[in-house]
Task: structure prediction
Amino acid sequence: WGIDGHFIICRIAQARLSNASADAVKQLLPDYAENDLGSLCSWADRVKFRYHWSPALHFIDTPEKLCTYQYSRDCKDANGEKDRCLAGAINNYTNQLLTYSSESTKAKYNLTEALLFLSHFIGDIHQPLHVGFTEDKGGNTIDVHWYTRKTVLHHVWDVSIIDTSEERYYNSNVENLIDTIQQNITGVWADQVKKWENCNSTETTCPNIYASEGIKAACEWAYKGVTEDSVLKDAYFISRLPIVNLRLAQGGVRLAATLNRIFG
Ligand code: DCM
Ligand code: DCM
Ligand code: DCM
Ligand code: ZN
Ligand code: ZN
Result:
């Protein structure tokens, strides 16, 4: 996602924190963030150049056309290093944050950075094309037009659908979009939210579930009907916007559920 997508997910999440995890997040955020997790939700993108090992942690590549994800097969970087992918990073930073209340182990890690990475990565794993095909780098090599502008399919899903939605329906104000998603979470989606929150095991977080949903949505919605130089306009925007809104909602709900399990 771009800045707005991450901001939306972190804002939705922070409003759903238990007292204990709201307190931990407040302690871990730097003072200048003024207890607003959303303001630092894109920090992980700004440090890609400084932390040379980090760009590979923002996505998962899966084999072309299969439309499935398997941790053991797919969670590696371009050099084949195991666990170096978005799902591995979510597990890693969850485990780091679990040391928060243990004085003996927490000093090993920078838990502020762990919180910022985890919050960003649980967002990214809900962007369908961040669990896309290796061959097209998650839609980065697929040139398209968004209405009249030249871009790539990946950017349409990171930024363009959200931007067009804000301009058309929300007076270009991201807060209005957040309000609408929050109303749907407590309204039309209320019955599903418990299932989104649950990991189907004793796990603290479930990146494998999120990634499997992601590649499925990538195939059924993001890649579907798109070829090189496709012109994407109202038909694509109107049919894909509900998927983007759903993934933003799920990202926020699951980030909160994960932090609530971490901090008790
Ligand atoms: N890292 C990660 N997920 C992994 C492995 C590593 O997020 N599965 C990140 C955190 C580490 C950084 O990569 O601090 C560098 O790791 P290393 O020092 O092992 O190269
Ligand atoms: N940050 C941190 N510890 C670091 C690096 C960054 O807590 N070692 C947090 C506070 C930083 C913020 O991320 O100021 C944004 O970093 P920057 O503006 O340098 O990208
Ligand atoms: N990306 C991805 N899958 C890849 C490569 C990149 O999802 N195989 C993501 C990471 C960034 C965006 O696409 O969000 C642009 O990547 P880059 O900065 O490497 O051009
Ligand atoms: Zn992206
Ligand atoms: Zn990212």
